[in-house]
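Kindly draft a polypeptide, keeping tokens residue-aligned:

***
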Amino acid sequence: MNVTLNVQNQSLPLGFQALSQVIYFLPDDAEFQPLFDSLAKHPSAQVRSAIAQKEHLSESTIQDLGEDTSISVLRALVHNRSAQTHLETDVVLKMIRRDAEVAETIAANLECWNDRKRLFEGLVQHSDPLVRWGLARNPSAPRNLICQLL
């Protein structure tokens, strides 16, 4: 995917690092959603990670990013409030199984996610004790389910 910056009839090709910086500085506004959705398909994980931080993404782009092969993209996505409300629970459960840091972030912010009961069940069975510890420390985790951790 070739991306160029055009200023006063001058074209400048942007490499993935420069493009990541441009994305960072773009306002997270609805008017840029088509651009964000398009760049979410960029071959660079660094670019996709920058896009995963934007809240103005289509639901299909959020689902695609949730299935991304790059852990850095998933780690960026779990901090995105829009993703927290739009990602399908099955996709989130796959993310939890793929990376302990992603699982730990979700456990610490369980109240932000849809279908907290199913996510709790996936987190409570996680092999990494740090994930389970983060879940137990979360003040919004349902107390009746915390007993499972004991």
